[in-house]
Amino acid sequence: MHPRAFIVTALTVLIPVQAAAQQPATTPDQLSVLLRPGEAVWVTDGSGHEVKGRLLKLAGDALQVEISGVPRSIEFATVQRVQHRHADSLLNGTLIGAAVGGGAVGLFWALWCSDAECDDDDGYIAGSIAIYGAVGAGMGALCDVMIKGKRTVYEAPAGRAARSITVSPLVTRDVRGVSVGLRF
Question: What is the assigned CATH class of domain 35-85+149-183?
Answer without folding.
Answer: mainly beta
